[in-house]
Amino acid sequence: MRRSFSALAVIGAALVTLTGCSAPASTEETPAASPTASESTLSGTVTVFAAASLTDVFGQIADEFMAANPGTDIAFSFGGSSDLVSQLIEGAPADVFASADQNNMAKAVEGGVIAGEPELFASNTLSIVVPAGNPAGVEDFADLAGEGVRVVVCAPQVPCGAATEKVEAETGVALAPVSEEQSVTDVLAKVSSGEADAGLVYVTDVKRAGDAVEGIAFDASAAAVNLYPIAVTRGAADPETAAAFVAFVLGDTGQRLLAAAGFGAAP
Amino acid sequence: MTSYRGTPPWLLAPAAVAFLLIVVPLLALAARVPWPRFGELITAPSAVAALTLSVATASISALLCLLFGTPVALLLARDAVPGRRLLRSLILVPLVLPPVVGGLALLYSLGRRGIVGQGLEALGITVAFTSVAVVLAQTFVSLPFYIVSLEGSLRSTGTRYEAVAATLGASPTRVLARVTLPLVLPGIASAGVLAFARALGEFGATITFAGSLEGVTRTLPLEIYLQREVDPDAAAALALVLVVVAVAVVALTSGPLRRGLRSYR
């Protein structure tokens, strides 16, 4: 008897937790600065679904946006772009979607969840990444195919893997990876732990990873430039504020912060 | 002797909730499968490679559980070791550990820079990114299931016959081989099936520790996770295969084998 009651309590607690998750976490009340003439009257919460590679920089951009527009609040859900697209199509409530590649944005457009035309706001290229100290002595892309060099790449099914294939085709260097990972994060983990001698990730990932790894730029990376599109969703609760955030990312402040994080400009 | 069957009727309500929580998602999965393409999807070379690798590695893992887990269960069940409680708690850790954490722990021990892995590397033995790593990850997560399940069987079997055999002059090894093991054979079988099923579904520790390469380390769960990126329908089809294999293994091995062994006993 007592056992059943405690089981019910667990279910109850779980339900409370679940419903708690769906409520937008209101964070960061910006101290109310006296609104100036140029200040807009925007307000409300904008939920942004953004590619995992944007985690740090979008956080900074959102801070600036909220400082410039008191009364607004930006909530994020970061994840793999394809995961985010599936969630959007399954009805997840988002106001803005920022994808790490055009392919996934196209899927979102096809799925009927995007309002208007997506706009490109950044680009990213591949970089060789090696553990600190570069134990295998990798210097260029061709070295990755060298004898005994353990290379880890993304699987061709995910954007970073598709970019890797393009570079292979461009250079004529065929890699024999020991593993084809699910995401750049997985590749980075295998390299920073020293399991792999080298990997291929984005320039911005190397920048985020810190001292455990070193990045090696290579010319052929220009063959596969990843373009990042952003768009307001069809179901946006407050399209005006959502559009303002998109404009902010495309504007001076957004572009400056993106460049500082290692992103290239959109064409 | 008739057994007591008078459960209070209100138990049905929470029981139905539990049942629906398990069955509805499975039905939803089956509903998502693109049936006209089903045959083509599950016979794709990458799918066949993943299924073959999964069945092979999970079988080896179950076998390893049998070889190394059975002695542990015997020692624990027969109170034959000091510090049994602590030992059991330690063995149960992988059961509650998120598999990804298990993968990291394996990496730190058997990886290239791990405490054991460094030595192996010096000997020219590499574990990471090989099928051996997959088997290790699967064995790591399924051993606790095997040991707990078998220890339960051993305890419920009791030690009467063993005590009699011993008083008749049988050596401990002879008692083990002729009395204990035959008695607990159904328990070994079901614990082995449980270990196999757990190994078949292993994902987190494998992707963290072993990597993902077709035919070498990309087991069916990893293939499903990857296919989901490009073709969610294919992922659903493969997931259903995994469910069917799991159900078939449990139903085919567990049921008749246990009944057969019981009647033999």
From TrEMBL, chain A:
Keywords: Metal-binding, Molybdenum, Signal. Residues 1-25 form the signal peptide. One of its GO terms (molecular function) is molybdate ion binding. GO terms for biological process: molybdate ion transport. Gene3D superfamilies: Periplasmic binding protein-like II. It comes from the Bacteria. Molybdate binds at residues 53, 81, 184, 202. Belongs to the bacterial solute-binding protein ModA family. This is Molybdate ABC transporter substrate-binding protein. It comes from Amnibacterium flavum. The gene is modA.
TrEMBL record, chain B:
Residues 51-253 form the ABC transmembrane type-1 domain. Pfam families: BPD_transp_1. The keyword Nuclease does not apply. GO terms for molecular function: molybdate ion transmembrane transporter activity. GO terms for cellular component: plasma membrane. It comes from the Bacteria. SUPFAM superfamilies: MetI-like. It is found in: Cell membrane. Keywords: Cell membrane, Membrane, Molybdenum, Transmembrane, Transmembrane helix, Transport. The chain crosses the membrane at residues 46-77, 89-110, 122-148, 175-197, 234-257. It is a multi-pass membrane protein. Belongs to the binding-protein-dependent transport system permease family. CysTW subfamily. Part of the binding-protein-dependent transport system for molybdenum; probably responsible for the translocation of the substrate across the membrane. PANTHER family: MOLYBDENUM TRANSPORT SYSTEM PERMEASE PROTEIN MODB. This is Molybdenum transport system permease.
